[in-house]
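Section 3.1: Structural characterization of target chains.
Under the original work plan, the team committed to producing a structural model for every single-chain target entering the pipeline before any wet-lab resources were allocated. The record below documents one such target. The sequence was received from the expression subgroup and is listed exactly as submitted; it comprises 166 residues.
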Amino acid sequence: MHGDNKEEMFPLVDEQGNIIGAARRGECHNGSKLLHPVIHLHVFNRQGELYLQKRPEWKDIQPGKWDTSVGGHIDLGENVERALKREAYEELGITGFQPEFIQSYVFESAREKELVYSYKTVYNGAITPSEELADGRFWNMDEIKANIGNDIFTPNFESEFMLLGF
């Protein structure tokens, strides 16, 4: 049985990304709204399709929903670039990509508050989704737009997709 480690330590940050403390995953995801940093990587192929991952049912946030290609928490003591490369390898088995910074912003839901560092890349190598994911595939833009608001994507993905205007 999989499950998120509620004892995992996350850095706490201010809205500029300065580390101001640390807290456990369980504390960050219990409605406390402790601001913690995450990375998102939008992986496109040559055809302009966007790879999305399906979150497994055992996740503590948004189980079973389709989400950003790569998304993950920045570990305590880890910088953004290292977290981006680690998560891309852990979730999709990809290396050697050229990330392009898009923007950072604060995302807030009923259960958490994240400082999101958003990147994109075009990647044409093999993608091997890990056991951390329930599924994954490329979607064309029309397919994504047709499904916005149908409760199949995470709210964070939908808001970022609309914000970035892919």
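The first strand starts at residue 9 and ends at 13.
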